[in-house]
Design goal:
It is a single chain. The chain has a single domain (about 5-205), classed as Rossmann fold (3-Layer(aba) Sandwich). About 30% of the residues are buried. The protein is built from 6 helices and 8 strands. By secondary structure, the protein is an alpha/beta fold. The chain is globular and about 65 Å long. About 30% of the residues lie in helices and about 20% in strands.
């Protein structure tokens, strides 16, 4: 939904600052092998800033409207109906996608479906409590511009991810000045008003249930009988000796 205005915003002064910080975060987070499959939902046009498309042959951008970096492989599809096999992807990147999608829960369910167990998920989003971001929202709304994102806080997305068995292992905040990375537990991370955007890296966990057999029940009377039998034999042995 209207992600073109977002791409145009990245070409501005503040957008370039945020672009540089998010590119650094992605460079540090893309630790999978170049032979593994990486999927990005939502084109940016500057994918070359954080990934070498010639090296990562299995890097694919999925978008129904916008264009990605020319060297990227792009596939046209809906975010809620990904034409990929279940558990076939090693990493998924969502660069400011959830704000512009009406069915956020279905997008995350599709991401969970295509990701392999222990696969990585990277999400970028705008901080709904930031003054500058809210000003941009109101300014464009007053001018009739089509940038009407549905901003979602990081803590809410973390709650959604936990329901899908994702574990958030790393988060970062961007404030047009510096990048602040926080590797503590997700519950301890708090938004600050000056943070304009955030990023998080999560892992899809798969928990195996260990079957527990039926509890064995012993008859106490039989146990006592065995103990009594042993004690009687012991007494006879003592008398004979």
């Amino acid at each position: 939904m209207h992600r073109k205005v977002l791409i145009d915003w990245f070409a501005g002064s503040k957008g370039k600052i945020l672009q540089a910080q998010e590119a650094i975060f992605l460079q540090r987070s893309i630790t999978v092998s170049c032979k593994q499959t990486i999927v990005q939902l939502g084109a940016l046009g500057w994918e070359n800033k954080f990934i070498d498309c010639q090296l990562y042959k299995q890097f694919i951008v999925l978008d129904d409207e916008q264009e990605a970096w020319p060297e990227s492989k792009i596939l046209r599809c809906l975010n809620t109906e990904l034409p990929l096999q279940s558990e076939s992807v090693d990493m998924v990147i969502l660069p400011h996608l959830l704000e512009f999608d009406n069915d956020k829960h279905q997008v995350l369910r599709e991401v969970e479906r295509i990701l392999k167990a222990e696969g990585k998920l990277i999400i970028f989003g705008f901080n709904p409590w930031n003054v500058y971001i809210n000003y941009q929202y109101l300014l464009r709304r007053a001018n009739g511009a089509p940038w009407l994102p549905q901003l979602v806080s990081r803590t809410k997305i973390e709650d959604w991810l936990r329901l899908l068995n994702f574990e958030v292992e790393l988060a970062a905040g961007f404030d047009f000045d510096a990048m602040h990375i926080d590797a503590e537990h997700a519950e301890r991370r708090k938004h600050k008003l000056h943070v304009a955007a955030y990023a998080m890296r999560a892992i899809k966990r798969r928990y195996h249930l260990i079957p527990i057999g039926a509890e064995k029940k012993y008859r106490s009377d039989m146990v006592m009988a065995k103990l009594m039998d042993i004690s009687i034999k012991q007494n006879k042995y003592d008398e004979n000796s």
